[in-house]
Design brief:
By secondary structure, the chain is α+β, with helices and mostly antiparallel strands. It contains 7 helices and 24 strands. It is globular, with a radius of gyration of 24 Å. The N terminus is likely disordered.
């Protein structure tokens, strides 16, 4: 049920009564952002009743002015969920709207997205609705060794499956299914001042992902126009965790994928269960790290993949893999309790000269001569420390078993906790 009141005074009175009523311990702020709405500074908050297992329901969005006074409230058409996010969008090029995203389960599940328009505070409305969130795929089925995907525009796409895919499918004796939208990214692709929505849906069989269907949505005269369809076949690499999310301690890494013009990019969002401010801080840090690569993707210069290496109470280590034919790695290591970046000097006593001697002694990459200062690019993967060097314009990697470096390790906490 939507929370709409025709009289602004009644709306504010009712919401003030809600705020003055003693709030149950389970009623919490799930997400918050601040910025311009209707050309004025505003704060937007999403509240809900937190249940067991970090599920929240009875969601309501509050719009407040810069002083904290309530301007409007709206109950989105979302039953409830996990990992809540808010952000600003402008899909009409004139007004600023609020997008709310609520996961339907863990990081693998679909997400409920809504866009709420506050331009008329007497008639707050959703302009990206539950129906829109069902996506553009009308029907999927198998026809011999092909997967047929029927889109909302009437196009019928024939995807020829590999022998391995077809054999795996045949053994399940299951029909393919297409979920709702699981990823949505906002970007002004054509630089006209109006944001487009880039959505992705998964087609799977017996829990195995087969294809991703990407779509570009654009608002035209208050109606959505869909186009820019792209269907990407998912590879069959066994035990591949690239582009997966992860469950940390008190937080989750939620992957967002873009499929556009036959290319793909995946970036992370961090959802905290009980700390809205820390959630915003970490996502801002990560956005600053991957934005330059995402811009390369939009310019069709490179794909981007995500690899969550460590997600525990002491360290969140995320690796971005960028490129076309050749690839480079960018590593971000963060303390998930504070949002502070972890430097190599926090892990190792890099001031000891014997460390450099030992690293050169253990180094198996003959293209690398290790000197000071040590590289800024580093990560921990499978009980190994990896250092990333640039040699003659190329990326070179040297790896060292952490057990061999025990004498120089300053923080055991950073290496003892697995995901």
């Amino acid at each position: 049920m939507r929370f709409n009141v025709t009289m602004k005074v009644l709306l504010i009175t009712a919401c003030l009564f809600f705020l003055m009523t003693p709030i149950k311990a389970a009623n919490v702020k799930l997400a918050a952002i601040s910025g311009k709405i209707n050309n004025s500074d505003a704060v937007v908050e999403l509240w809900g009743d937190r249940k067991s297992g970090n599920y929240a329901d009875k969601l309501i969005i509050f719009l407040k002015d810069e002083k904290g006074d309530l301007l409007a409230a709206y109950e989105p058409s979302i039953t409830g969920g996990y990992g809540c996010f808010l952000n600003f969008v402008s899909v009409d090029g004139k007004n600023r709207q609020v997008m709310v995203a609520v996961g339907r389960g863990n990081w693998q599940a679909d997400t409920d997205f809504r866009i709420v328009d506050f331009s008329d505070l007497k008639q707050v409305r959703e302009i990206f609705t539950d129906t829109d969130n069902s996506g553009v795929v009308q029907k999927v089925w198998f026809e011999e060794n092909k997967l047929i995907i029927d889109l909302i525009n009437g196009d019928e796409n024939n995807i020829e499956l590999t022998a391995e895919q077809f054999q795996n499918i045949a053994s399940t004796e299951r029909d393919p299914i297409c979920g709702r939208i699981f990823s949505l990214t906002v970007c002004d692709l054509d630089h006209d001042g109006s944001d487009e929505l880039l959505t992705v849906q998964k087609v799977s069989v017996a829990g195995k992902e087969l294809t991703n269907v990407g779509t570009v949505w654009k608002m035209d005269n208050d109606k959505w126009q869909q186009g820019g369809y792209a269907i990407l076949v998912v590879g069959n690499i066994k035990n591949n965790t690239i582009n997966d999310g992860a469950e940390g301690v008190g937080y989750a890494v939620v992957p967002r994928k873009i499929v556009f013009e036959g290319k793909e990019a995946t970036y992370p969002l961090i959802a905290y269960y009980n700390d809205v401010e820390l959630q915003n801080r970490l996502n801002e840090i990560l956005q600053q790290e991957y934005n330059i690569f995402l811009k390369e993707f939009y310019r069709r210069e490179a794909d981007m993949a995500l690899n969550v290496l460590v997600a525990n109470k002491s360290m969140l280590s995320i690796q971005f893999i960028i490129g076309k034919d050749t690839f480079i790695h960018h590593n971000v290591n963060i303390d998930p309790t504070t949002g502070r970046k972890i430097k190599l000097g926090d892990l190792l006593d890099t001031k000891q000269p014997d460390l450099i001697k030992l690293l050169n002694l253990l180094n198996a990459n003959k293209n690398v001569q290790i000197t000071t200062p040590l590289p800024d690019e580093w990560c921990i993967n499978d009980d190994k420390l990896l250092l990333f060097h640039t040699v003659d314009g190329k990326e070179e990697i040297s790896g060292f078993a952490l057990g061999n470096l025990h004498k120089f390790i300053k923080s055991r906490e950073l290496i003892k906790n697995k995901n």
